[in-house]
Amino acid sequence: xxxxxxxxxxxxxxxxxxxxxxxxxxxxxxxxxxxxxxxxxxxxxxxxxxxxxxxxxxxxxxxxxxxxxxxxxxxxxxxxxxxxxxxxxxxxxxxxxxxxxxxxxxxxxxxxxxxxxxxxxxxxxxxxxxxxxxxxxxxxxxxxxxxxxxxxxxxxxxxxxxxxxxxxxxxxxxxxxxxxxxxxxxxxxxxxxxxxxxxxx
Length: 201
Prior knowledge:
This is Peroxide stress protein YaaA. Pfam families: H2O2_YaaD. InterPro entries: YaaA. By secondary structure, the protein is an alpha/beta fold. It has one domain (52-199). Helix content is 35%, strand content 18%. It is built from 7 helices and 9 strands. It has helices spanning 5-16, 26-29, 33-36, 45-54, 88-105, 118-121, 150-167; strands at residues 24-25, 56-59, 63-66, 70-71, 112-114, 133-142, 145-147, 184-185, 194-199. The strands form 3 sheets. Strands 5, 6, 7, 8 and 9 form a 5-stranded mixed β-sheet that branches. The N and C termini lie far apart (35 Å).
């Protein structure tokens, strides 16, 4: 993995004593630009119940996680290369895709809203999904060109999860009302499968 010596040492010691580390609920165990922009301390019980039933986190170590599933601290990126496999995402792809098909089969509205980064989205075989997937992208107009600004995109993915939880959204069409951080849904930039939210200069 492309991490610092300090992080490498920390995670080496984590795995050496893995069984003795305390657990945290998954959505509280992760940090970074996406998770730091999720209002984890302000959701109501109804919103938590909704998220638990409608949201999955893709983990390089655990595979698919519900938001309140308990996990131990670790660092393992989905882009990590494994012997005989190009990336860790290839290891998980069949299991995660099958799991998503099973979960979606139980829902009334059978859509997968994908807020994951490209790195983690690669652990889903979209061609083998039995139900529609909508990939969400956040782009900004810079010098008259639309670009994905990584840090802003990460933060806004967290904000969109807040929007979904606050409004208990289980119908994709309602996502088009999202307007935080001055993004808006762009009909012209979007397709049935890829929805683009744009922020002007």
